[in-house]
Amino acid sequence: MKRWGEAFYDDGALSGAEVFEQAQIAVFVADRFSHLMYWNTFARELLGFADDRDLLGISLLDMGVHEADHERAAQLARRVLKGETWEGTFAVLRSDSTWIHLRSHAVPLRHSSGSIEGIVLFAHEAMRYGRVEEQYGLLDRVGSRLASSLEFDTTVKAVAEILVPQFADHCFVDLFDHDRLVRRVSVHAEGWTPPPGTWFDVGEEVRYPDRHFVYEAMRTLQTQVVTDRMHPVDVAGERSTQVAEQVGVTSAIAAPLRARGETLGVLTLALSRLSPREKTSYGGFDRDLVGAIASRVALAIDNARLFEEERSTALAFQNSLLPSSFPPFDGLSIAHRYVPAKPLEAHGHGIQTQVGGDFYDVIPLSAGRVGMVVGDVEGRGPHAAAVMGQLRAALRAFAQADREPADILRELDEWVRRLGRPDGDGGTWVPSVSCLYMVYDAWSRSLSYANAGHQAPLLISDGQVSELALEVTDTLLGVKHKGVPFDDAIYHQADLTLPPGATLLLYTDGLVDRRPLGGTVNLHRSLAQLVEGVRAVADRGVEQIAETAVTAVPGEIDDDTALLVVRSHPEELAIQEEWFAAEPPTVGAARHMASSTFRSWGMDRDQAELACLLVSEIVTNVVIHATPAPVHREFTTDGVKDSDLPFTPGGAMGLDDFDEDWSDLLEEVQEADASATDEDDERRRFLLRLRRGASSVWVEVFDHDLRLPRIRSAGADDEGGRGLYLVDQLASRWGSRPTPDGKAVWFEIPLKGE
């Protein structure tokens, strides 16, 4: 034995490295960037990496640290690299996919010069051995984890991940669904699952006997502790007690879940031999601890339920403002999607981010044409959704009146200004709106559009995907101010022709304005990802294209998204047209042309005869009312003048109403023909156009008269005035619209095969 003060020499002394390898505590060493430089054998075994895999150089976060604890890890690094120490608990996913909690103590790694070169972390498994100081920390972890989620399933799953296996081997959460108690969570340590037909499974109704400790907890509203093995933790059947004995259940706690004066259900925890632990029985301190945990869990569950209910209400409101489906459109296939913003617990902005102002629509127009629109109202929340709903309704009304795209955007710009609200500073806040409105004729493949600051759609043709080249893009709706130059305040219109069988993808910016995890938004990269994803399914159906587009750009969905996919099918379409002179004999010629065309299209005989009758009616109207001379309309200081004739209130001169007074029939037409010039003859021609789709036939008659037709009430003795009435009663739809040099009258008849 050495005396005090004598030097000690022993060839068996341990080196520092040997001490670390034999110590029954996990030791991790990381550099200043948190990259792993060393970990001892106990650390490998604790995290389940007992093999020879070399993980040196990876980030400590990549070793399974729970996402909710990433900020805690960043705090550790900041403090230790400043020369301080840090102590706390992490949830870590082991290599066998089980969760453990590590109680950690971190200190600086100093060089001999005094500079801090890294971090040394000492850790052991927390809460497994019943240390009181660790159980106090459990409350903080439960509160932090529950506060990080507003989704019900995430909330209850987080509870189980915290409590099993650190504090219990079994965890059950039973919640009331009206008057039924239903199991919502059933989690067990070591991946064990009860044999079928023994303990209740998730989704099953649970019934406890009157004297069962779980029933007593709900009846008395007090936490109950049992240490008697004769009390089964579950009562699903006769074998439940046998299963409890097989796994060695030693103790259990049941705590009522109450929030805002209402009992939501019960939380049950139990200890068994599934995992090794020093503590095998719960005591009074554990009862109080679980009672406090249950109160937090109950409040989190109640908040999650309220959140889910409000989110469902918000999404129902949003979906009610958007079309859920579209009627069949001849020659077109359509798919649409609306994707709400990411669930809000990550943003802290409240329920409002679940609704937004993104919208889309496809509007049936005259003679098989369609109006396509996509837009985005600034901001999110109920006000943005309300503006969107009113805007879409107004746009649909303007479009169905066959207004030109540029005219519609001018009207919408004024409409948006009226939807402003006080800004709190005595002014009015007017939302800005991007809007792209297109009119597509599938027969001619012509596309007319006006654009209020919206991004160009994607054009998919022959397996290639690119942005559609838009010649005009004007200011957002609602942002122009009084006094700006006229050229800056007007919306322009342009036309283009799509390739045969082309597909358009119209979308809002939420589809590409996505933020990668831990990164920033890169619109150029996102657009490239979208194009690449859509190109891979360019030859698939529109539903597949829409589904692929939604997921093509990875990242956080911070903004809602609306998209519309429209594909043309020219093989379903046919068209026949011919010019006629507006003379009485051409009525029969036009009818004959229509009859032979309908017969070649395989139209039902009765439907074809009906369509020919209606052709005769609208052609006769054209012959009778076609203007004998060009009509020019201008605004003067004296009023509106048509063909140099001043407008009078009675309508005797200038612009008068178009009616169907057939009292003089064709005699006056013949007299007008005798005095007509060559220019008049050109103006007195009309075009009869017949269109066939997959389910309908459209008839259009174009002439140079500016007056739109109207239905009038004919008297019993009147010889005319019933033509448009017949069209209105016998056609599926009919209407008229102005054209650049006159008007078009059209009607639709269903197509039935023979």
Automatic annotation (TrEMBL):
InterPro entries the record matches: Bact_Sigma-Reg, GAF, GAF-like_dom_sf, HATPase_C_sf, PAS, PAS-like_dom_sf, PAS_fold, PPM-type-like_dom_sf
GO biological process, one term: regulation of DNA-templated transcription
Pfam families: GAF, PAS, SpoIIE
Matching CDD domains: HATPase_RsbW-like, PAS
Residue stretches making up the PAS domain: 18-84
SMART domains to which the protein is assigned, alphabetical: GAF, PP2C_SIG
Protein name: Histidine kinase
Source organism (scientific name): Nocardiopsis gilva YIM 90087
